[in-house]
Amino acid sequence: MCGTGVMLLLTALMVYYMKVQSDSFRDQTELLRKQASTPQQIQQPVSVTISEELHKVFAAKEAFENHVAENKDDHDKLFSKIGGVERGGRDEVERKITLLSTQLNSTNATMHETKGEMKQLTSQLVLIQQELARR
Predict the structure, then answer these.
(1) What is the mean pLDDT of each run of 10 residues along the chain (135 residues)?
(2) First and final C-alpha spacing in the chain
(3) What is the value of pTM for the model shown?
(4) Within the chain, where are the H helices?
(5) Cα–Cα distance measured from residue 119 to residue 84, given in angstroms and rounded to the nearest whole number
């Protein structure tokens, strides 16, 4: 009997919660509909005037372009050096990977040979033990 009462109470709480959620959802939906139907005013961008103070703080476009032109050769040389170092490093890494691969293949071959020799020695040892057991 007590379990049934608890179940009824839980069911009533769930129904109440669902109603509250439904009302809240309905209110939010109505608010969104009102906002969507109300035309929004688009603000125009504020006009900006360049003052003399800005020219004192920042370089003029002409001076900046002159600076870029003067430094173009230096930048080209730097990028060329960086590219050379990058290519050299890539070649070195590829060379080391090739060397390691060769060494690994050699080691694998040696291990396979050793494994074969160990099998032969094991079979010979078994034969010797059998021979000794017969004597």
Answers:
(1) 69 77 77 72 63 69 84 89 90 92 90 90 92 88
(2) 88
(3) 0.39
(4) 2-37, 52-57, 61-134
(5) 53
